[in-house]
Design a protein that fits this description.
12 helices; alpha/beta; globular; binds flavin-adenine dinucleotide
Length: 443
């Protein structure tokens, strides 16, 4: 059987590796971006000089041939599901028995005048990185449009090279569609502390060219003209599926799939950023656009393709990111505003750069999620607590078990406990204390 996979990102490559582990099928992976799979999440570190691009390859180049995974660098123009055939941009074609579409995302462009000028890019692909490096030479100001995780990464990248940045964020506080007001305010402060010209509640009107068709300035909705030579479009991403326009594969925003990643077309599956669940799983989004979910999708679909039809059961949501120097982790469901019947226990460090935010059900104090800023917790501990539906007192008493900060870091669990005890004087809890390094040595 011949399995064709469109996309050599985390989801396509994980599917390929697991199909090889479990079968002898012929596997072909096609990508128009790079010859080899790389860690997209670390692209920023190449720009910042922490790593070389070669370091982003998790596998040696011989791995693919040794494991009989054929790699093709080409663009799939058309998918013919009736004849089970792919049409490539260079006119060649290829038959398949089963097809996995893992074509990822592309940066949103909302039809802004000037969005295709020289000096405008997204921050998604290897090609984007190359272009950004090129435009950085002699760059006097970069403007970034769109305040999400990729926008703040791009701001940090330019900041690392001392290039002034203006950051336009449509919302009136950073990422406030995801973060609670206190958390979002913390990140606003962090962005400004790093010298970024953060413009909240501001939108792009148009990008203005110079006489050579290159970016010379942008105009904001409020009418201000800001001189710049580069514009980064980071207003979210959309499933990269335009090559399926006439393919008889059902799509909405993404490629519609069930929990087995099956599409409406026989023997065609979709995974990773480009897939959209017809029905989102409880507590999760219909389109999951993060690294670890891509890996889980790939692993799951490989089981089905190798004869063990397996549904996707990812467990509680989690994610992590970094906002300049503030690390962020989230486990379970924490919304910007608590829904009816849920409450928050919130503690913020006096520095205004660390906080813990636990959300729980009001009736039985079952914990439904936590956000952490500047403090690291262990994923497996939280995954277990959420699956076992632990209550707030239990979690608080055992919070030290989750703490993952290195020895000698300040710990703050006690502060959160004090806050709880203040709010619930008749249900006081006491931490089961973990011995610190020096205590374990008998000091
Ligand atoms: C800058 C950046 C930072 C990120 N940081 C994080 C992070 O810290 N944590 C996190 O969880 N997630 C992060 N993400 C998101 C994460 O990288 C993605 O969710 C993940 O890479 C998606 O994997 P994928 O395999 O679905 O698709 P992709 O990695 O997008 O791979 C799809 C591949 O398919 C190719 N392709 C598409 N169409 C065709 C076609 N027709 N023919 C041939 N090839 C095609 C594309 O060129 C691409 O190479 C980040 C994303 C970006 C851009």
């Amino acid at each position: 059987m011949h399995i064709a996979i469109i996309g050599n990102g985390i989801s396509g490559i994980t599917a390929a590796r697991h199909i090889r582990k479990n079968s002898d099928h012929k596997i072909t992976v096609i990508s128009a971006e790079t010859d080899y799979f790389f860690s997209r999440t670390a692209l920023m570190y190449v720009y910042m000089g922490h790593m070389k691009f070669e370091h982003l390859h998790p596998y040696e180049n011989w791995f693919w041939e040794k494991n009989r995974i054929e790699l093709i660098n080409n663009y799939v123009d058309k998918v013919d599901v009736q004849n089970k055939q792919l049409q490539f941009a260079d006119g060649k074609s290829m038959k398949y028995d089963k097809l996995i579409i893992a074509s990822g995302s592309k940066p949103n462009k909302f039809g802004w005048p000037g969005q295709d000028l020289e000096g405008v890019t997204g921050m998604y692909s290897y090609q984007d990185l190359q272009a950004i490096k090129e435009f950085s030479e002699g760059l006097q100001r970069a403007v970034i449009v769109g305040g999400g995780l990729i926008g703040i990464e791009l701001a940090e990248m330019f900041h690392s090279r001392h290039i002034p940045v203006t950051f336009l964020v449509r919302e009136n506080s950073f990422w406030n569609g995801v973060l609670s007001p206190g958390e979002s305010a913390m990140i606003n402060r962090e962005i400004k502390l790093n010298g970024i010209d953060l413009r909240l509640g501001e939108e792009l009107e148009e990008i203005l060219p110079d006489a050579n068709g290159k970016v010379r300035a942008i105009k904001t909705k409020s009418g201000e003209e800001i001189a710049c030579q580069y514009v980064g479009l980071t207003a979210g991403v959309t499933p990269n599926i335009s090559f399926l326009d006439n393919a008889e594969v059902e799509t909405q925003r993404g490629i519609l799939v069930n929990t087995y990643f099956e599409t409406n077309a026989t023997d065609v599956y979709a995974i990773g950023d480009c897939a959209q669940f017809k029905e989102a799983l409880p507590g999760r989004k219909a389109i999951e656009q993060v690294w670890y979910t891509g890996r889980m999708h790939g692993e799951t679909v490989a089981q089905s393709i190798c004869g063990k039809r397996t549904p996707y059961t990812p467990g509680p949501w989690f994610n992590s990111a970094k906002f300049f120097d503030i690390e962020y982790q989230t486990y379970g469901t924490v919304l910007p505003d608590n829904p009816e019947g849920q409450k928050s226990l919130y503690w913020e460090h006096e520095s205004g750069r660390k906080c813990m935010h636990i959300v729980y059900q009001e009736n039985d104090q079952q914990v439904v999620g936590i956000n952490l800023f500047g403090i690291r917790h262990r994923h497996e501990v939280w995954d277990n607590w959420l699956k076992k539906e632990k209550t707030l007192p239990y979690v608080l008493e055992n919070l030290h078990k989750a703490n993952f900060d290195p020895e000698f870091f300040d710990t703050h669990e006690q502060k959160l406990i004090e806050e709880y005890n203040r709010q619930f004087p008749d249900k006081k809890v006491k931490a089961k204390k973990k011995k610190r390094f020096l205590e374990r040595l008998g000091f």
